[in-house]
């Protein structure tokens, strides 16, 4: 069965960094486009970053451009989100998302809290 397992969340001070990982299994990872979404308390889930199947193209929501970097390792079936210069408004549950031949899969999420 398809599994997306996020890790790397936690508590970090403003200005700090975290790297999220998402380990995928159960589908052909190298053929899937991958996304990171986030959902803050009381807000709708939003797309944060996108990467194409071969890693050749990435896109970001304006609020994280220049601070976050999405990458993938197709040999390890893993996608990453490097988050630098974190702000309190980045506090949210971060979800890994895969789109593979029209099917969409979600991880259970990892909580990122940015607070002093």
Question: Any key phrases for this structure?
Answer:
116 residues; mainly beta; seven-stranded mixed beta sheet; 11 strands
Overall description:
Strand 7 and strand 8 form a beta hairpin. Helices cover 0% and strands 53% of the residues. Strands 2, 4, 5, 6, 9, 10 and 11 form a seven-stranded mixed β-sheet that branches. The chain has a four-stranded antiparallel β-sheet with strand order 1-3-8-7, with no helix packed on it. The chain has no helices and eleven strands. The relative contact order is 0.32. The model has no long low-confidence stretch (mean pLDDT 97). The chain is mostly beta strands.
> How many DSSP helices?
0
| Percent in strands | over 45%
- Number of E strands: 11
Averaged pLDDT, please?
97
Tell me roughly what share of residues is in helical segments.
under 10%
């Amino acid at each position: 069965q398809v599994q997306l397992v996020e890790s790397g969340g936690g508590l970090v001070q403003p200005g700090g960094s975290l790297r999220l990982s998402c380990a995928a299994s159960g589908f052909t990872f190298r053929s899937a486009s991958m996304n990171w979404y986030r959902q803050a308390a009381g807000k709708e889930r939003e797309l944060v970053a996108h990467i194409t199947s071969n890693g050749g193209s990435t896109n970001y929501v304006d609020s994280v451009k220049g601070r976050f970097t999405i990458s993938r390792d197709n040999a390890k079936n893993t996608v990453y989100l490097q988050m630098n210069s974190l702000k309190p408004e980045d506090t949210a549950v971060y979800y890994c998302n895969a789109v593979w031949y029209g099917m969409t899969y979600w991880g259970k999420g990892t909580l990122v809290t940015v607070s002093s």
